[in-house]
Amino acid sequence: MQLSQGYLPDEGSLNIGQGSHSMRVLIVEDETRLAENVARSLRESAGYAVDIAADGQEGLFFAESNQYDLIILDLMLPKLDGGQVLTRMRESGQRAPVLVLTARDDKDSVISLLNSGADDYLSKPFDLGELLARVKALIRRGKGHPSSVLTLGDLELNTVNHTVQRAGRIITLTAMEYRVLEYLAHRPRAVVSKTELLEHLYDYNWEKFSNVIEVYISGLRRKLDNGSSQQLIHTIRGQGYILQD
Question: Mean pLDDT score of the chain, rounded to an integer?
Fold first, then answer.
């Protein structure tokens, strides 16, 4: 049974704390308060889904069990230190960008980290605003988008101020519609399954929203294709959705 409009979660505003997200981040950090502060910042400022692991062993399990768009990894961890986690992740084929948090900022340590597969590093203590900027840049680079503006044909998304245009026409989207579109735009011309969308748009308890994706796709099509003869979002029966011009 499809959910009616009255049951859609967090549809009207950018109140990101209600559970809807476009990118998924793992924080591996044993300082609980720091991890929670970073997670809150990522959820509220950027709308990311965030998982937290409190030690290296748990972090490695999370990284190998889920698909993340970015991993924030502390160096000094119980059970397995950050360097070991990073090495094992890369050996297992985990290609997500990794931002390392370190109390060390000497040149040799930084070079060693980058050679082990880290993409960037921040020395503690750090500014949350700088962390957020680094995270967004790494995710864009990881998706092959060095610019904050994503384009596909005549469609343009600005991932900083969350504006959308098609052929110069400004399109007003709800918070959730934007997040669905941004996720698809980071994977142009690739089939994205409904399950993948749900896992990235919500935290672990996404099952209760399993019927809403069709509603958001329908709303996006109506708004994006208005006045255009070319449809942008296509359904691949039994597989998912694809954004292509």
Answer: 82
